[in-house]
UniProtKB/TrEMBL annotation:
Keywords attached to this entry: ATP-binding, Kinase, Nucleotide-binding, Transferase
Protein name as catalogued: Dephospho-CoA kinase
KW Transferase (keyword) present: yes
Coiled coil: none
């Protein structure tokens, strides 16, 4: 099995390339979608981020992470504190990606594309 990573910034064509490859038979793991799911209320990564950030970055009504507000705050912080915030998200996301790939049990000759944004 060959695992290929596709990454890049916002609006660089990652989704378009991934869709073209999916149509041609490549197995796609959308880590962007997974990254959104691991921060849903009640998930372990959500709990870690909430403990680190407090309620400032979470909607008071539904508890959902306000990603745009967090992105603005991260842009203004020093690198060390940003890394501390991103670690739970990355470990949660990559743990799920790894589990999906293992569970696919695809023939060794198959290829899997992991589609992931450069930022979370």
């Amino acid at each position: 099995m060959v695992i290929v990573g596709l990454t890049g910034g916002i609006a660089t064509g990652k989704s378009s390339v991934a869709e073209m490859l999916r149509i041609r038979g490549m197995h796609i793991v959308d880590a962007d979608l997974i990254a959104r799911k691991v921060v849903e209320p009640g998930r372990p990564t959500y709990t870690k981020l909430f403990a680190e950030l407090g309620d400032e970055f979470f909607d008071a009504q539904n508890g959902i992470l306000n990603r745009s507000k967090l992105a603005i705050k991260m842009a203004s912080r020093r690198i060390r504190s940003v890394v501390n915030l991103v670690k739970p998200l990355q470990s949660g996301t990559f743990g799920v990606v790894e589990e999906i790939i293992i569970n696919m049990q695809i023939e060794i000759k198959s290829m899997i594309l992991v589609h992931y944004a450069a930022s979370f």
